[in-house]
Amino acid sequence: MVLATVAGGAAGWFGPAEATLDARFPGNPWDSEQNDVRVRFAGPGGAVEERLAFYDGERWRVRLVAKAPGRYLGEVWRNGQKTEAKPIALTLDRPLPKGFVRRGGPWGLRYDDGSLYWPVGFNLGWQSPGLPDLAETLAEMGRNGLDWSRIWACHWDGKNPWWPNDKSVKLGIGEFWPKALDRWDQLLAAAEKAGVRFQMVLFHHGQWSTRTNPNWSENPWSRANGGFLERPNEFFSDPRARKLAKAWLRYAVARYGHSPSVLAWELFNEVEWVDAVADGQKEEVGRWMDEMADYLRSIDPYRHLVTTSSHLDLPIYRKADYYQPHGYPPSVAAMVLSAAKPGDKPLFFGEVGPGDLGGSRETQVEAVRGGIWSALFAQHAGAGQYWTWDHVYRDSLMPEFRRAAEILRGSGILAQTGLSLLKPDFGAGTGGDLSLRPGAGWEPTRQFVFDLPRQAGDTGRLSSFFQGRAHPEMRREPIRLRFVAERPGEIRIRTIGLSNSGGDLSVTVNGSVAARRSYRRRSDLAEPLTAVFPAGRVEVVLDNDGPDWVQIGSIVLTGIGERASAVGIGNDRIALIRLQRNDSLSEPLELRLPRLVRGGEANVECFDLDSGERLARR
Known about the structure:
Layout: E1 2-6, E2 14-20, E3 37-42, E4 48-52, E5 54-55, E6 60-66, E7 70-78, E8 81-82, E9 88-92, E10 101-103, E11 109-111, H1 134-143, E12 148-152, H2 178-194, E13 197-204, H3 239-256, E14 262-269, H4 275-278, H5 282-299, E15 305-307, E16 326-327, H6 332-338, E17 351-352, H7 361-377, H8 389-394, H9 398-411, E18 420-422, E19 430-436, E20 449-451, E21 465-466, E22 479-485, E23 489-498, E24 503-509, E25 512-519, E26 529-533, E27 536-544, E28 550-562, E29 564-570, E30 574-581, E31 602-607, E32 614-617
Parallel strand pairs: 12-13, 13-14, 14-15, 16-17, 20-22
Antiparallel strand pairs: 1-30, 1-31, 2-6, 3-4, 3-7, 5-6, 7-8, 7-9, 10-11, 18-29, 19-28, 21-28, 22-27, 23-26, 23-28, 24-25, 24-27, 29-30, 31-32
Helix pairs in contact: 1-2, 3-5, 6-7
């Protein structure tokens, strides 16, 4: 990593405070139609604040954060009528640092005090066996300078209040499990102490799927399990299901909404995998997202951001505050760098990982770096957030995140304006192997001709799923690789996945078929498909005329790659460049430092991302 530079608000929130209501009410305490319980506070200077109360399994409580310090006197209301409950007195005297996260600022997200929020962290979807408690991991993230995570309300680790993972708990539909609700309090407290903001994922695809990561067979709302829904698709249209979904959203706002550590309410994880989308009910799913986003905004006094995930071509982002795509291609860096910023709202990847999720430490490290640095260079609203928290421990990845946070903070790059993408020439020359790794997953290929090595970094438009006859709309023509070779070389195609029907890959070099293989069993993937090419001007054509897709992990062309590559971001005052040596070379490289900033002398610092050492400064 190379850094070159030219030489030489108030948040307005106070709290929280909490009180227990001296009241008991008949009916279901979890149902706001029977018990719409609120507290109306009168505060300093005539301020009026209304907050939703919540039932914790034993008593009613209320939490308050407000924009003015001082004493607040609250009256308890139920179903629009003032009750005889004893008035509540609360005092707010502690300012909330920075406040809540909003849309705005040059990168897309900011705090209430106007300071930048460019999130860096990793997912913590659920508690994995054998790993530290999620609360401990949040604390460790904070100690390492990270400020983002994403946590699911899933049932298998006890965080879903309407779906207990304890079989001894008998919960009626429309009731909540206090133990799960308490767990969210623990995680919220840990995140607040660590300075981590997290997306609270309220629903996920498996709950409403019989096909992808399916949990429908266990879902308590399924009629087969004593519930009321015949099919998972009905979740998005059934009036009772929509009412119950809103009950969970309302409870989350009432109990957890006071905390700025809730970055956003994420309505759904990867809704593209629910049965309703698979069955063509995309617009119905989109209307559900619109309705729930509107409902959240109607009841949330703190105006938390609202988002969902993940496919950008679904009608699910109309009411969202920012886009949250996910992706797992062979090249995370290429995917993220090629993702253009939409003009209407911020975007950053909520999940990224390598196509080979269980791959080597080297594979995981490159996914982490590709997610963070390529998102910075693409000027996204935050890093591409690494998914596999288990591997953070398995592969000792926390130093990767710490080094990135230190460089981002210490460089001051995020405070700059007028930045643009840089691809400087360090004078390394060619001669190494060129490795093309697709940067797109299950989506159409959008680029079919690559002039190499100049376009080696453009593989974000190349899908790793190399389609055959089953999906001609996802690959309209063969892939053509054009280059000039100083000497004869070899092309090696590494395949990592296979459709049920298989495929047939062919390699044509300068008009002649040089290699061909049929893939019908996973054992056919074991060895790369290879072919040779001559010196001089070369065109390699890759095709698949078989039944269905073969997944490509990498395409290596020997001897034509740059000896070192560079990509970064900068303006006329500062540049931050990621410089990568070609892995196929072992001899020392002599590089020429190009002019990265204008005028005068520049301070140059070099950091080794592997060791964390500062290699040079001048």
